[in-house]
User: What shape does this take?
Amino acid sequence: MPLPTATENDVQSAVRAALKEDIGSGDITAMLIPDTEIAAAKIISREAAVICGQAWVDEVFQQIDNSVTVTWHVKDGDRVEPNSVLFELQGKARSLLTGERSALNFLQLLSGTATTCRDYADIVAHTQVKLLDTRKTIPGLRTAQKYAVTCGGCHNHRIGLYDAFLIKENHIAAAGSIANAIAAARQLAPGKPVEVEVESLNELEQALDARADTIMLDNFSLDDMRKGVDLTAGRAKLEASGNVSKATLAGIAETGVDYISIGALTKHARAVDLSMRIES
Assistant: This one.
């Protein structure tokens, strides 16, 4: 699965920062091993998962020692079963051991994010809804986690504060009205997507009249979501948000909204259990 351009640029800097904090002035334990010692290793998943993070793993060993060979047996987005061999390493034992933790940290986190997303996506596979992530990501790893979201079958909301408008209650209060806020957004950055958050059907009508591109239904009841879908009749995209869980997800999707945004896709991801075995 190709990486977005921004993510390709971010991989190197994210790995550089991870290695700096882990290695510091040098891996003194790895120095116990002769520099000439060659080893092989296998990286194994201890649980079922959706894999993500190949580019970050490759970059770890590229930066530590570009003579290390990384041989992958899976690709990003693949589902694996427990005890699956994900990739193999061949090279200096020092290099393999020094890179182990940083490589696995990236892989276990991003695979955890992708696995969580796949779990959610499977719940709504019978509908047309798209599940969206949020900006509730680990600092410094936004594009990495958003890439993992796509590997798990979900979709990206805006990347940051710069690529789309999301007009919320305080923005509306400061602007004076929903219509004023949307008009100001159109004037400030023509062509940028404009989304507005609403808390009632009355506010939904105001956002429709002001021609928002997307309208976020914040903590609407299922009944009001269905009414909102009928009222909107395709004039804007509708996004449901607020207190979404696996238990409530299917019901929300079945109301006919276009999107559901879920902070848990990234902020609640649990790292996948991985291990590395040195073989020689």
Observations:
- The first strand starts at residue 38 and ends at 45.
